[in-house]
């Protein structure tokens, strides 16, 4: 069965259906989008059940010639890491549709267009993780910017156009650097064994270390911008601050993961030596991201920007885990990608509801919400706890794995990164105190609590966060073979405990 | 440059004589094109340059091209130029003062540099290369040779260029064509306008422009019985162009006095 | 009910209570408090059942452990969600569920007027569950879950009345300072895994013998940081006083009897680490000693009855931490003091709550006075607690505190004399400020505000106080008799043999009682008078002012952590705007600038374009010329 | 005689034509200057044809003439169109692109 093609095709069908619906019937568009995303989720679950977790190679491989004269194929296939990320994306999609039911109103274009964009984006989200042809990956990597650009610029708030342009240009710069590297790889492959874009073959390329370093940087900067790693992050607060909550969830939850996913799938496998060369530098950047993002989050006045900065801190952890080159760090990083999507989704969706009720995204405009809207307040608090990695919630498992994995090889980095957990408490509890606690301030007295639709939307997120906090094994069992394999392929073994006989 | 001077001194073939007379003339004529004020003069100088070039072609065994140069360029193209010149006003003379600041020095400096470098490069590229000459290629006659090439090796460009020519002709028509600004009125409409219009005064037609023996009277309004001019007797386009004359100039009284004076 | 599954019930019952009450919302308002109390009580019953089972097993069979499921497993990092019930944890289980249930009962009445009583009970149950997880976890990581869980519950309960901004701030402060401790704990776990390859108690205990002292010292210090955070020890002590913002039952349960003693539990549990790391152990002693005096000094200047008691708690935990730092001779006494302290301090807090209940939530002791007649039961139970904390025989504190003082004197070397003296001085100061509390509250003249009508609390409130009072009287002797607790716990610790006795026990007791007597007399001399000011006098010595300001702890934190932190944040926000994003925007501005600059060339004149083409051609040909030459 | 002399004169004429395009404002003169440049190029073609001894250059010159003819036709049509709307044949007056 052509699982991946089916998965990529389904949202497009949904988009086509939505596009022929009458413009006036907004409800039908929403329902069609919801049904499509749920269908995609079901297919993904079925695919996950068919996944052979012992097999560390690519699975569900499909390959169709696309541009034969350049050796370009429509080639897809997934390993465990990609599977987890696709699962994450397809779970998020229906939640975003449901949570942002009224998000598209007041946009520059019709409600219908909003859902078409979301569905097209979903196709690309699946494709970008599934592509095994470098050219296909690049095309989707860049094409993803288009729907997001319109989602931010068309349905955002504030200076949405400027933010969308900044996002687009920033990402394009990275993409172009990557394109240069991709072309170089293609040309070199022609010299060595015939032109190809197949990543498995490309990983066999012989390169001088200078070449490898330069090409690695091309890829890494693109992914660092996407991820985003300090100092390439400044597009994110603007974009997330202007985008509608649902778009922000997809932006931070899925799109940014392409960056960290790319670091594993492309940087490490294509350029193992260069990865090792740059590891010290990248680890420092990661640690800076963690602390810098946290401090900046503490200093924010706008709740959406605050969440964006927390994500920068979290992406620092993910990058740290990837480049720590231990199986714990790697598994932790992959698990972190999955968990971060949901904790950020919770934060953004709830913050979005708060903002749409209050009509402001400035933290100090809120106050005493716990008395007025207990369920909303609790949801926000819970999302915050997940973001600060409270043990028992899913992000703790991943954050701790990253820290432990890093500590065994780079104790100093891990110790500095651990300060992040104190700062996390601050950047979550400060807005919690300002917005939820204290006396109910004027303007907040008549806010409405969550309605049934919103409760249904947030419930699965909460459930995932709690269940994976206590029982992450199912996911870890899928992830572990793949990450262990990657670490081993790079020639690393986990540092052994330094037990000595006394 | 020295080499050039030596060669000039040494060559005394008829071709060289022709070249050293016509060449400087052509350059002077070309420079003149830039310097004269009136476009017509420019055009004439241009025609001269082209004829000189035709002579050069023929001198270089390009008989066909030489003839074509005269027929097509000096004949057709230059005529076209002159025709358009007439259309847009033959009398207008350009002011040669420059209006865009700094343009002229830039242009002249660049041109001098360009020309100097070009000559220098040419000197380096051609020095010591003997011309093979076209006697072999033109063995079957110049026209036959070109014709053979055109329809064998260059047949594809030839076809393409013919398409270009047709397109250009069409393009010129499209560009120069002026669509009607108003809908053409039918006869029926005209008669309705005439009889059911604002006034029935013109039902019998507008008055004809006045006819005076001393002037082509189409641009002079007719005089009404009371002696005042009737502006609507003059063609509208003449009026729009401002070519309508004052009919008082031709007042009968003035004419008669002048006549008397002559007597 | 098999033995193993019932371990889950211990935690599961209160956790279910919390879940039901929180998710059920207002629907459970009517019966929520009853359910919570019942579940806490049944957890206590399960605990007693386990105690009986355990007592009936031979010594080496007493600890039972249970693997629930595989929790985190990556490479060599394998952590199971497992529970461990041994002699040490059962003490805590009974203390937590026992005192916890009593406080549930107390709260039914105490919180009856509060519209959010259900939420309060949900938090209480959540706390019980988290605390049980903390003491039952079989690895440092499981403990960590409980560790942060109680932190969360503490945060929620301190900020229970968070509509008051000060209370919300207090809860945030507590959580953040606890997080500093948590950071220590997580680093300790990382060190354990990196050096020993395991994070379970059993594994670390086994590997500790094969691990370098440096690593163990590092781990020990990190554990100490963790303990300091949770147990409000120096230098992370500042949150405890503010934590009194929570409802009084919370102060009794969390900030006196159970949660704050988690640090003692952690160090005791990690005895194998500390025994092999003398430097870390010495630091533990130092921290304990400093806090002991520090807390006691703060206690002398507090007019807020709860804050006075909080300072006392800090000081008493200082005793316990000091004891744990003494090594094997101290562990059992630390636990013993912990248990007796749990009884008498919880009792006193509930007594304070009862007083407040009768005094319209007035906390200023200067506005109490002569309450003895109006609240006889409260007076008696509070008094018993007072005698216990002073260490008056035969009350519980006498046994436990004396043992610690004795151990301090017997720990060997010069350090012993110093520590012993410190503990004695601490006892004297304790006697002073506790007597002060007693006198200001129950003796003297009425200094109430108008409209206050003190009355005895309902039976639901005094019953738990009475039970705790009984505990305060008897627990010391019961645990001390025949070295019951020592023998019970000793299989867990490696004994390094008997220590020389520097002073005989009877001498120590005599010294301690003398010191107490001195403290009491000073307090009586100072406060047993008619004209106590209802507002604290202002013209006091600088020492008093210094102590009143909590020895500048908040000012210190503010000056050295908060302000620099805020400055750093502000600086970074500016940096972000000016430098990082500034450079990005600078590039954008450069593009726009060069664009508008070049736009001048697009002047619309064809001829200037032609000139540009000419210049371009010149450049090109010049390039060719250069290449050719 | 040396054929390269023709090349020099061709270069000179080309340069003069280029200057003319830039400095003259009358659209028709500008056009004539363009023609001059084309003719200069043609002269080069013919000369090269002679130097190389084949007729390719002459064929090219022929093509150039056709292209020039097309260009003249279209260009003059444009001039007429512009003249109609602006009553001027000065290229400076057709400067709507400027800000």
Automatic annotation (TrEMBL), chain D:
The chain crosses the membrane at residues 6-23, 28-48, 60-83. It is found in: Membrane. Keywords: Membrane, NAD, Translocase, Transmembrane, Transmembrane helix, Transport. Pfam families: Oxidored_q2. It is a multi-pass membrane protein. One of its GO terms (cellular component) is NADH dehydrogenase complex. GO terms for biological process: ATP synthesis coupled electron transport. Gene3D superfamilies: 1.10.287.3510. GO terms for molecular function: oxidoreductase activity, acting on NAD(P)H. Its main location: membrane. Belongs to the complex I subunit 4L family. PANTHER family: NADH DEHYDROGENASE SUBUNIT 4L-RELATED, NADH-UBIQUINONE OXIDOREDUCTASE SUBUNIT ND4L. This is Unannotated protein.
